[in-house]
Amino acid sequence: MRNTHVVIVGAGIIGAALAYHLSQRTRIAVTVLERDIPGAGASGHSFAWANAFGKDPREYHALNRRSLDMWYRLAHQLDTDIGIHYGGEMRWENSPERAAQLRQRIRQLQTWGYPCRIITRDEMLALEPHLCPGTTLAASLSEADIHVETDKFIDVCLRHASESGAVVHPRTTVSALVIRNSRVAAVKTTDAEFPCDVVVLASGVQTTELASLADTYIPQQRSPGIVIKTTPCGEVLHHIAVIHAPPTDENHQHLHLRQLVDGSLRIGQGTQEGINRDASQQHADALLARAKAYLPAIADAEAIPTPVGYRPMPLDGFPVLGFTEVVQNLYIALMHSGVTLAPLVGEMATLEIADGARVDWFAPYRPERFG
Ligand SMILES: Cc1cc2nc3c(=O)[nH]c(=O)nc-3n(C[C@H](O)[C@H](O)[C@H](O)COP(=O)(O)OP(=O)(O)OC[C@H]3O[C@@H](n4cnc5c(N)ncnc54)[C@H](O)[C@@H]3O)c2cc1C
Are residues 332 and 192 both part of a single domain? Predict the structure, then answer.
C-alpha cells in the first residue's frame, strides 16, 4: 500500500543512500531517475575519504563526525561488501611550520573529541612498513577515518532499494518540473512524465539548474578536481585507509593516497577541496612518481589519467538540505563531502521526507539561506 511517491533525481552516493532508506518505508514508492549510469557524477571521481579532520567550524565538524560514525552501522545493515576500508588516516609533515600546524590541529580535534593523536615515526613504520616517509617532524593518526568504494556502495544501495520495490531508470534525463499550486506535480524526462508527491534533487552540480526550474536559487562554486588511478599492485598499505604525505618540495602540494581491494591506488593532491583541471597522462605520471618516492613498493604501478570531476559545491561550502519554501514538495540534497555525509543525509532526510520531521542538525543548512 505505497501511497507516497518520491522521485529522486540523481543516482550518485546521495541519491543512492536516500533511495535505500526511503524504500525501507512501506508506504513510500521510490523512483530514481539518472541521466547517465549510477555513480557517473562526482561520486565516481571522488577520493572518497570519510572524515571530519579538516571540517570547520565545530558544528560542521560535528555533522561530519556523526555521519562518519554512522558508516559502521550502515555497513552492518547492508551486510554486503561496500568497499569500506577501516584503519584510519595517517599524515606527516616535513617542515617546522606545517609540523606545528599539525600538532595544533590535533590538539583542537582532540578537544572536540575526535579520536586522533600524534604518533612517532616508529609507530608510523610499524603500521605501514613499506613507507619511506623521509624527514618527519610531526605525524598523526586519525583512527576513525575510513575510505569507501563508491561504485560498490551505490550498487548495493540501489540493489537493496530495487528489492524493496524502488524503480531505477538509468540514462533518463530530467528536463522539466510540472508545477501546480506551488507543488511539483510531475517530473518530465525527454520521453515520459513521472507523477510525484515529493521530488528530491540529489543531482550534484546540476542541482542549481534543476532548482531554477522551480524558481529556487541554489548557487554553487565551480570546483574541479582530479584523482588518478593506477594499475593494480600488491598490498602496500596493510593497515591505514588513507595517507596524506607532505610536499616533496615547495613547488608541489600534499599528496593523498589510498589502496582499493583490487590493489589499484587512487592518488590526489592538495586538500580535499583543491582545484585541479589537469587530466593529462603527464600529470598522472608526475603524481605517481611522487607517490613512488614515499612507497617504493609500488614501483611497477602505472598511472591511468582520469577525467576532471566536479564537486557539488554550494557557494558557502556547506550542505544544502531540506524542502524549499517556494515549492513545498521539492527537497534539495546538495553537498561537498557527500561521501562522508551519505549515511547521515540518507537517514535524516528520510525522517524529513517520510515523517515530516525537521531535523535540528540541518537547521544551518536550509535552502532558504540563499534567499
Ligand atoms: C576530485 C574529488 C574528490 C573528492 N573527495 C572527497 C572525499 O575525499 N571525501 C568526501 O566526503 N567527498 C569528496 N568529494 C565530494 C563527493 O564526491 C561528493 O560530495 C559526492 O560524490 C556527491 O554525491 P551526489 O550524489 O550528491 O552527486 P553526484 O555523484 O554528482 O550525483 C549526481 C547525479 O545526478 C545525475 N543528474 C544530474 N542531472 C540530472 C538530470 N537532469 N536528470 C537525471 N539525472 C541527473 C548525475 O548524472 C549524477 O549521477 C570529492 C569530489 C571530487 C570531484
Answer: yes
